[in-house]
Amino acid sequence: MSASANGERVCLSQEADPLNAGREKVINFAMKNRPFLIIALAAAVIVWSLYQSLGGIEGMQRDPTVSLGVIGIVVLISVPFFWFRYHRLQREPIYEAVRDPEPTAPPDSQLDRTPLVFVASRLKILGLLLFSVLAFSVVALMLWTQPGVCGVVGIATTAPFIVFTLAMAVIGLVVLERLEITPEGLKHSTFWRSRLWSWDEIRDLTLIKGRAFGLSWTSGIVFNRFSSDRYASGPARIMLRPTWPMASDKLADMLNRARLRWSSPKASEFVPVRKGLSHYLPAALAWLFVGIMLYLLIGRPCA
To answer: Which residue in 174, 235, 238, 271 has the fewest CB atoms around it within 10 Å?
Structure first.
C-alpha cells in the first residue's frame, strides 16, 4: 500500500514489486505442477538410493550385468507405479476448494443461533498425539542405528523439536482449542493465543486431503487472508487442524456459508495479504529435516 497526495491509500500492483511478482510466479508454477514435482522428488530419491546401493559408477563398472539387471527391474516396477500415481494426483488433488452453496440452497439454520462455539475433541487430539509418537519413534530408531557421531548429532538436533511438539500436544489435551463463529468473525483460541478474523478477511476456504491405500481423510482446513493493506501484519494463510467434533468438510461448508452471509461489500476491495518469510519457514524446515534424514539413511556419511 502507498499513500497518495489526497490521503487515499492505493494498493501497489505486483508489477510495482518485481520481487513479489517473481515469487508469485514460482508459487503458481509449483501449485499447478504439484503432481509432477511430487513424482520427480520420489524418482530422485529412488535413483539416488539405487546409485548408492550399486556402489556408484565404479560398482556398476565392476559388475555391469547385475547392475543393468537391477536397474531394469527397478524401472519396470517404478515407471508404471509413478504413471498411476501421477494421474491419480491429477484426478484427486490434495487441496480441495470448498464450493459455494447453490443460489437455491436453503440458508444454514445453525447460523441463526450464534455464537456457535466448537471445542476440540480430546479423542481426535489423542489420535494425533499417538500418531506423532509413533512417527517420532521411527525417526529416533533410524537415528540411533546411525554409526558414530552421525547418530549422536542426529538425535541431539531432532530431540528439541520432538520434545516441543509432544509437549504442545499434551498441553493441548488439557487446554482444548476453541472455535467461535459470530456475525463479527471467526475466533480461534488456544492455550497460548487467541485470534479473530472478520469475514471480510477470510477467502479461499480449502480442505487438505490425504489419500493412501484406498483410504481418504482430511488433514486440515486452510484459508487465505485478505486485507485492505497487502502488507498487513499476521499470517497470510491460516490452517485449522481436523480436531473438531464436526466433520471437517461440514465445518468448512459452514464457515464458507458464514463468510458469504456476513461479509460486507467492502470485502471486494481487499487484496491478498503478502506472504512473509514466516509463511515459508515451516515448510523449509520440514523439507530440510526430510533431506537430512534421507542423507543419513542413504548416504551413510559416517559408515
So the answer is: 174
Check whether the bond before 103 is cis (ω within 30° of 0). Answer: no
Domain boundary among 76, 91, 106: 91
- pLDDT grade for 17, boundaries at 50, 70 and 90: low
Residue at 265 is within a domain: yes
- d(C-alpha 122, C-alpha 128), whole Å: 10
Considering the entire predicted model, what is its pTM?
A: 0.69
Q: Among 75-84, 154-163, 205-214, whose mean pLDDT is lowest?
A: 75-84
Written in H, E and C, the secondary structure of 16-56 is HCHHHHHHHHHHHHHHHCHHHHHHHHHHHHHHHHHHHHCCH
Rounded CA-CA distance 267/98 in Å is 19
Alpha-carbon gap, residue 190 to 174, rounded angstroms: 11
Q: Which domain holds residue 71?
A: 33-91
Percent of the chain with pLDDT over 90: 22
Q: 116, exposed or middle or buried, with CB in 10 Å at 0-12, 13-18, 19+?
A: middle
Q: In the beta sheet, which residues pair with residue 224?
A: 203, 237
For residues 210 and 258, state if they share a domain: yes
What is the C-alpha to C-alpha distance for residues 275 and 266, in angstroms, rounded to an integer?
A: 22
